[in-house]
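Shipment paperwork, digital attachment
Item: protein structure file
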Amino acid sequence: MGEKYGAVVAGGLGPLSQKVFRVGHMGNINRNDLLATVAAVEGSLAEQGYSFTPGAGIAAANRILEPHI
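Attachment content:
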């Protein structure tokens, strides 16, 4: 993901280590950074053959972020 999309992720820690991942960032982030990261995750999952509705993550993030514009 880092090379292709510019989003750096790492495995989770502790009891959630096999269920979550962490997103790397430096300092403050904004809405566009969040949406770009979600898009990178979607793209990577699609490339790995996961079945999901493309754009669903972006739509969900937009709904959650909407009140905070």
